[in-house]
Design goal:
Layout lengths: L1 H4 L5 E3 L3 H7 L9 H19 L2 H16 L6 E3 H18 L7 H16 L10 H33 L6 H7 L5 H31 L2 H16 L9 H6 L1 H14 L7 E3 L3 E3 L2 E3 L4 E2 L3 H5 L19 H5 L15 H18 E5 L5 E3 L3 E3 L4 E6 L3
Antiparallel strand pairs: 1-3, 2-10, 3-6, 4-5, 7-10, 8-9
Cofactor: heme
GO biological process, one term: brassinosteroid biosynthetic process
Catalytic activity: campesterol + reduced [NADPH--hemoprotein reductase] + O2 = (22S)-22-hydroxycampesterol + oxidized [NADPH--hemoprotein reductase] + H2O + H(+)
Length: 383
């Protein structure tokens, strides 16, 4: 926590060359100081706008219902792959007004997968390398977003007057005169990346841990059945329903602690620092290992046990975890990601029973992946 709490004072973000080259200068991850604050404020405006709009809830829930309904004739689903499509569909709809049936979402997903592989590659600028493919994917994504911004600027006034569509985040970002085109593109790509990959991985982890814990799955299902019993036939969820899902929230927080989606951060000492009995010279790299905190037996009783009940005192347990980072660089979209996960989970637990392969497990590669891609054997709960 010492490192994260002193971000901008004693430490600065310092990611590897490959990641920096791919993200570019206008990414929240690589930005520092006042520029970082400016970009983060724009992203927070998106988060606040989205959370307050029932359209986001309805979009995420309708896509959940559609995807889960499409599995009825299938006995096995490659869950991790499916939920990546779910989260990218929600994000491109909310950010760019791309409909779930638009083929463009597939191209965006493919480019993001290439984009991410390059983050952990050697920066070798040769054809066919992960680094080169990621640079090309980033350029395609940037060009797509830039083209949409320019087209939206030309069409915006007439469309809004005619009521052809409702305002989305792209309209908000276009109207912001304090940021240039490159910054606008960088912000859109940052939100897409965070909202798509992290949420999909969290959802897969929740389903994995619940498959290993039948009693917890039963308890979670009871909570969702109680909420559904008070809703009309086909009635969608709202924020009040979300806030009532207290046990589900505990399950998600415990999955974040045990799953460790982000395992470490990259920082550099901007001054010579004395911390306890250690001296960190100026310019040295520092790697806060979040996994070490989340699995520390001095902080968490039986740390390797998946136990959502440890979150009944959220304020106390929150002080011992850093699932969304901390300090000025804490992830601003954590609550939005949890919201997507809960909406999908609600319909999943009410629609199916599931089992995973006996040797299935999450692995660090270094992103969280699954040995068998999270193959679920599913069975409808009703005929």
């Amino acid at each position: 926590m010492f490192v994260l709490q002193n971000e901008g004072k004693l430490f600065a973000a310092d990611y590897p060359k490959a990641m920096h080259d791919i993200l570019g200068e206008c990414s929240l991850l690589s930005a520092t100081g006042d520029f970082h604050r400016k970009l983060k404020n724009v992203i927070i405006s998106f988060i606040n706008l989205t959370k307050s709009k029932p359209e986001f809830l309805h979009c995420a829930e309708n896509i959940s219902i559609s995807m889960i309904g499409s599995w009825k004739s299938r006995g096995v689903v490659e869950f991790h792959k499916e939920v990546k499509m779910f989260t990218i569909s929600v994000m491109v709809n909310q950010l760019l007004s791309i409909r779930p049936d638009d083929p463009a979402r597939l191209y965006v997903l493919q480019d993001f997968l290439s984009y991410m592989k390059g983050f952990i590659s050697l920066p070798i600028p040769l054809p066919g390398t992960a680094y080169t493919n990621a640079i090309k994917a980033r350029k395609r994504l940037s060009a797509r977003v830039m083209r949409m911004i320019k087209e939206r600027e030309r069409e915006e006034e007439e469309e809004m007057k005619k009521g052809i569509r409702e305002e989305d985040f792209l309209d908000v970002i276009i109207s912001n005169e304090d940021i240039n085109y490159d910054e606008k593109v960088g912000i859109v790509l940052d939100i897409l990346l965070g909202g798509f990959e992290t949420s999909a991985t969290l959802l897969s982890l929740v389903v994995y841990f619940l498959a290993k814990s039948p009693s917890l799955l039963h308890q979670l299902k009871e909570e969702h059945e109680a909420i559904r019993a008070k809703k009309g036939d086909g009635e969608l969820l709202n924020l009040e329903d979300y806030q009532k899902m207290e046990f589900t929230q505990c399950v998600i927080l415990e999955a974040l602690r045990c799953g460790n989606i982000v395992k470490m951060l990259h920082r550099k000492a901007t001054h010579s620092i004395k911390f306890k009995e250690y001296v960190i010279p100026k310019g040295w790299k520092v790697f806060p290992i979040l996994t070490a905190v989340h699995l520390d037996p001095s902080l968490h009783e039986n740390p390797f046990e998946f136990n959502p009940m440890r979150w009944t005192d959220k304020a106390k347990t929150n002080k011992k975890t850093m699932a969304f980072g901390g300090g000025v660089r804490a992830c601003p979209g954590g609550e939005l990601g949890k919201l997507q996960v809960i909406l999908f989970l609600h319909h999943l637990v009410l629609s199916y029973r599931w089992k995973i392969k006996s040797d299935e497990m999450p692995i660090a590669h270094p992103y969280v992946e699954f040995k068998r891609g999270m193959l679920l054997e599913i069975e409808p709960t009703t005929s």
